[in-house]
Amino acid sequence: MTVAQLAAAQHAAGRPLRFDEYLAIVLYGEHGFYTTSGQAGRRGDFITSPEVGPLFAAVLARWIDAEHARLGAPDDFTIVEVG
């Protein structure tokens, strides 16, 4: 069942399409994101830098090491990843 079909059925039944129902269809339904074989890249799905290869991690580690040294190599050095 497509999102439009489910939304129409829910409307006819007098209740809106819940967000969890919507996500279940668009992510795991017959044509959902995780059930179709998509490709990453210019004509496919978005891909983040860490998924491309090890270079991203190497560059990030080098930057963190440089920042730690620039701050005088403190014993307490916290890295916070947001997102």
Distance between the termini: 33 Å
Q: Would you identify the regions where 5 or more consecutive residues have pLDDT less than 50?
A: none
Helix and strand pattern: HHHH
Which range does the strand content fall in?
under 5%
Describe this structure in words.
The chain has 83 residues and is mostly helical. The protein has two domains: 1-36, no CATH class; 43-73. The protein has four helices and no strands.
Q: Outline of this structure?
A:
By secondary structure, this protein is an all-alpha fold.
Topology (SSEs and partners):
Blueprint: H1 3-12, H2 19-28, H3 49-52, H4 55-70
Features of the shown structure:
83 residues, mainly alpha, 2 domains, elongated
